[in-house]
Design brief:
The protein is an alpha+beta fold. Helices cover 37% and strands 25% of the residues. This is Acetyl-/propionyl-coenzyme A carboxylase alpha chain.
Length: 489
Amino acid sequence: MTISKLLVANRGEIAARVLRTAKARGLATAVLRHASEQEGPAHAIADEVVTIDGPTPVAAYLDIPQIVEVAKRIGADAVHPGYGFLSENAAFVAALEKTGVTFVGPTSDVIDLMGDKVRARAFVEERGFPVAPSAIEDDGPATFIERARAMGYPLLIKPSAGGGGKGMRVVREDAALEAEIETARREGKRYFGDGRLFVERYIERPRHIEVQVMGDGKGNVVHFWERECSIQRRFQKIIEETPSPALSPEQRLDICETAAGIARAVNYRGAGTVEFIYAQDGAFYFLEMNTRLQVEHPVTEMVTGFDLVAEQLRIAAGEALSAAQADIPQTGHSIELRICAEDATADFRPAIGTILLLDEPRGEGVRVDSGILEGVKVTTDFDPMLSKLIVHGPDRAQAIARARHAVQNYVILGVTTNTGYLDAILAHPDFASGDVSTGFLAEQADALTAPGENVDDLLMAVAALSDERLVAEVMQISDMHRKMGSWRN
């Protein structure tokens, strides 16, 4: 099969990132745009921009019939979903399969299986891979609470159809169990349309480690090493890095080969990520499989030298994997920071505004995957992530230093961002030593958001000094007026 025209069914930084690779491979490209959206980087890259409608912008990007109709109408023979929206929606993939349009990713059957946490967990356990002790509601709804209670505390409640941390609840005492189950059920119905639950034994101070895999759908699977994703706020990843500072070489091989084995068992096609909970004693347990490209895939690209989107497009076009396992290196260290429009000092309230000045960091080992431009309004219509700052260094210490320098020089004026908060995390001694867990941000919440030096004033000063137009105008002020200082009438 061949792919000549690609529709990217997404927006923002991931749409721009996919389009760059597609263009480099010589494909004709198209991208979606809701009528309310202003022009962004992706719209400038694509050969064609297709307007979609919906009662809300998000609803438009989730409208399966409309997007399938767009793909057929513009003559796209493949659709790349990016991440989020319909990227793990089996019904969307089935609709494309029915029309003969290639989905850049796994088959609808595999998404259907691995997207259901309960079925995926059972599939993995039946094939001898490690899973944490659990109680599954579907196995006996009438006895679910008693079976959960019998496991002992603490417990972690999860929606069966969940993802992204939504609907997950930690329970530490029996008195709260039934109320938390009902809360998780309501959230599962709200976010995923499915109120089924399961409960796992909660691992204290766990780490979140995931492995990038790539399969050709013909039984061949390779891994692109692991990513450490323990820096999370309310189960949402904030900073990711690779390699994980927690793993020995032997543990690294063990967890990566386990992930590849799970992907091989499901005859996986395309890019996917197998996620694990990693305990303090070195044991690890299957958490879930994300059947798509991850937000944090750039750190993998930085240490391996592979373009994962190019690999996805190769496989979607029916080509073989481009490399054997022995040919995939893990060189140096990479860290990704998610730059979000939110106020860390106000419980991470989403921020809105117009981007008045944008000066993104550049330099050796620095990459920015951005979805914003100067003059663009930031609203609450979509996820607050504006861009991703990715750095690479010869080792972890130098990568941290490079990340701190880059984030301190990331200028976005007009909307509040989390850059100061990210810098505070990087500067924390526990992060520097690698001694963190998924509870790190909650444990250090006061320290990381405590008022220190006036970061806003520093950022304003950096922004002003980075604006050549402003500096030039200041330098043109006559000596007489300059000596008057801050005099006012």
